Amino acid sequence: MNLRAVSRRVGIAAAVVTVVALVAPYAIITGPEYASQLASYYASGAVGWSGIALFALLAAVVIASVEQGNVDPGTLAGAAIVLGLATTASAATWALAVQPTAVFRDHLWLVWHAPAVVALSVPLPLSAAVYARAVLS
To answer: pTM of the prediction?
Structure first.
């Protein structure tokens, strides 16, 4: 088993899955009565949903570009760790800041959405760290 290749794929997949899970309520919950409630739900936290998505997608791009050879692989692997940690930290602050609204009453699964996004983001910094160790050894 090639630990470098596996951790690279897991990191990219974790980033993409985090973003897909993050935006899932937009695709599932419809109706004009929920628009403002979803907007306030996603605006919670220090950076909101856009910061989480940005950090995750940047981490995926950085992890994917390490093998291209344009920049020092050790530098990019370290940047991937920082972006992975930023993704998980911003997702955690977002999840802690979410305040339940009426949309939670109608869609009970939304109570577990923010913690699920945090849980799905955890493999990103872990796989980035394993990948960095494989790159640097």
So the answer is: 0.89
CA separation for the pair 136, 36 (Å, rounded): 47
Are 63 and 15 within 8 A, CB to CB? yes
Burial of 127 (0-12, 13-18, 19+ CB in 10 A): buried
- Domain of 35 in residue numbering reads as 3-136
Total domain count, the chain: 1
Per-residue pLDDT of the chain (137 residues; tens, 9 = 90+): 788 889 999 999 999 999 999 999 888 888 788 888 888 888 888 888 999 999 999 999 999 888 777 778 888 889 999 999 999 999 999 999 988 777 778 888 888 999 999 999 999 999 999 999 988 88
d(CA 91, CA 55): 10
How far from the centroid of its chain's Cα atoms is residue 124's Cα? 7
